[in-house]
Amino acid sequence: MHKKREHWATRAGFLLATAGSAIGLGSLWRFPYMAGENGGGYFVLLFIGFTFLIGLPVFMAELTMGRRSQRGPVLAFTELAKNSHIWRLVGWLAVITTFVILSYYLVISGWSLNYAFMSLNQFYKGKSYDEIVQVFDIVYKSPQMNVFWLFIFMIMTGGIVFGGVRKGIEKWSRILMPALFIILVGLFINSMTLSGAGQAFKFIFSPRGSALSATTVLNALGMAFFALSVGLGVLITYGSYMHSNDDIPKTALIIALLDISVSLLAALMIFPIIFTYGFQPQEGVGLIFKVLPVLFAQMPGALLISTVFFLLIVFTALTSTISLLEVLVATSMETFNWTRKKSAILASCAVFIFALPSALSGAGKFFPLWEKVYGKNFFETFDYLTGSWFLPLSGILTAVFVGWAISPEMRKKEFIEGSKYKWVYVPWLLILKYIAPLAIVLIILNKSNLVNIDAFFCRN
Ligand code: TRP
Q1: How far is the CA of 124 from the centre of ligand 1 (A)?
Q2: Is 42 helix (H, G, I), strand (E, B) or coil?
Q3: Which of 228, 248, 262, 369 is the most exposed place for a label (fewest CB within 10 A)?
Q4: What is the dihedral of CA 170, 175, 181, 186, to 10 degrees?
């Protein structure tokens, strides 16, 4: 029979670990760069809307599935649907997407670690703004550096997951999440004093007709899922370590609010710098690494601020990579009956190997012709495919699954168990059953030019 499953030690531990999974490079690195590339405005507002309207309900759906089934994604889908093979495939889609996201996420995490290390060496000293920005290109294009830091990050993540859920994940999240929040607020206040702050606010919050396209809508949906950690069974796995008296709707709402605040704080900290120093919002994947050091370099205590900031990014990235790797480990433990240690080692090796082409993308060493064929390099291709397609798709399928395929009595009982907010059940179910599936169908039709929603929004 099943081995006894490890559970979270305390309620705060569960909340912090889930928040740790949600808050990470998604908010601090991906959201600002995507907001820049998608023209701010609509993208940001859609991101906020999708987070609450679709992301949050799917978040609750995953926790419900996890706590009910006491399984990772593949078995959760299979067992809750009475061994249906079709739904098992959805579990596997989630696992494969997790694998791919983790691989390139580790590369960016490696850059953060590299920047923390470089900050300790005051790499910006005596350089002009342009020279500081160019340091990123050197980092990006160096094969050795990318592989080295990727390797270090993989070892850190693998080591913590190897040690088990409670000891590893809970302990770290408890200390580092509050520290990150404090430094972010400090930097945000500082950015508000810059001359570009007004322009940044306008860029981020004011919707401009011409910038809305189906691509922006899909990107915003994917971004909302990415930042919340929903859609890939991470929360099924974390939910399976929950206790029956934990409150699902309340936990989900707290995390969504935290996640949105961190994403917006990050954007409001970065865009004033961009406009004050005359950079472009469309800098792409290197945005935060190029722009932030320019600001840090002029602050009193630059050494400390820059090093601590990048270290905190490293830690939030780590709480997210842990959650992604945990899915792969939980899945291989229960599907192949491996031990935690064996699963952690094998999964880490596999992810490391698949991450290599991403790490070498900037150098153009692996698949040198990739960009010519696909229009984006290896790493950008997978960021786009998983972030904007696989992730929303597998998230919406989770909504359909919980909305239509599982037993209604069991669903209701599990959802309201331990919760003071039982009334949330009905609106939650309506969204899972109708609104979330409809939203994705509309977006896909629109993207393939079969229906034109843009016409409803564009004013010019
Ligand atoms: N949410 C994390 C971030 O913002 C990334 C992440 C961790 C994730 N686990 C996930 C994204 C599961 C999608 C699904 O950095």
Answers
A1: 30
A2: helix
A3: 369
A4: -170
CA dihedral 220, 308, 10, 66 (to 10 degrees): 30
Q: Which residues contact 226 (CB under 8 A, 6 or more apart)?
A: 26, 30, 101, 387, 391
d(CA 65, CA 397): 13
Of 166, 319, 314, 350, the C-alpha closest to 234 is: 319
C-alpha dihedral (99, 103, 108, 109), degrees to nearest 10: 80
Judge contact between 81 and 87, C-beta under 8 A: yes
Which residues contact ligand 1 via a Cβ below 6 A?
21-22, 24-27, 101, 226-227, 229, 231-232, 234, 320, 323-324, 391
Cα(first)–Cα(last) distance of the chain, in Å? 63
pLDDT of residue 4: 65
Q: Look at residue 172 and give its three-state secondary structure.
A: helix
Pocket test for ligand 1, best of 101, 104, 255, 259 (most atoms within 8 A of CB): 101
Of all protein residues, the one whose alpha carbon is nearest to atom 9 of ligand 1 is 229
Measured by CA distance, the residue closest to atom 10 of ligand 1 is: 229
Q: What's the gap in Å between 26 CA and the centre of ligand 1? A: 6
Residue nearest to atom 7 of ligand 1 (CA): 320
Give pLDDT tens digits for 417-454. Answer: 989 999 999 999 999 999 999 988 887 777 776 666 55
The three-point CA angle 312-145-133 to 5° equals 65
Tell me the per-residue pLDDT of 395-405, one tens digit each, with 9 for 90 and over: 999 999 999 99
* Complete DSSP assignment for 349-413: HHHHHHHHHHHTTTTT-SSTTHHHHHSS-HHHHHHHIIIIIIHHHHHHHHHHIIIIIS-HHHHHH
